[in-house]
Amino acid sequence: MLVFAKEKLVFLALPKTGTTALEAALEPMAAMVLRYSPNLKHTPGYRYDKYLKTYLGKCGVKEPETVCVLRHPVDWLGSWYRYRSRPEKQGAANSTEAMSFDAFVADYASDDPGPAARVGYPPRFIRDNDGRVMVDHLFQYEQMDLLVAFLGQRLDKIINLPTRNVSPAADLTLSAATRARLERKHAQMFEDWEAARR
């Protein structure tokens, strides 16, 4: 999470949406940087709203706007799948090395996902406890150029994104049946991503 005090902007870092590259580019301009610990770096909107927004207000950052990136659900899951297939994850309970992408997505869309498919839920990241979207500016990962332009304008800076944290290549074949199951089980993910289109 990045806080730009003067510009009254807070960047909420949903995992697997290019956040590492964005942080590398934007960190020098930020007044506050939460990083390293995943629980800090990836502070969700509801936790920010409950704990940090008030603190920022007390520090003079009144009513900052929030921005977050959403990635197409299948591609987002593909990034998680590839990330958890890395050699350093070999033997770990949440490793995906011994499963296909289709099996991984089917597990994610089940009622009780196993350790490998427990990767969070983007709608929960951007919504409050009543289900309302609480992020002011949503962007699609697939339209990163629009996000970069937005941030460049708000921060009055030319932004060049480095390549960071790229997961290894993998076969991301997904059957029509599994995709349909994902779309039924987690329709909100697809709806939120569509709503972020500009």
Automatic annotation (TrEMBL):
GO terms for molecular function: kinase activity. It comes from the Bacteria. Keywords: Kinase, Transferase. This is Gamma-glutamyl kinase.
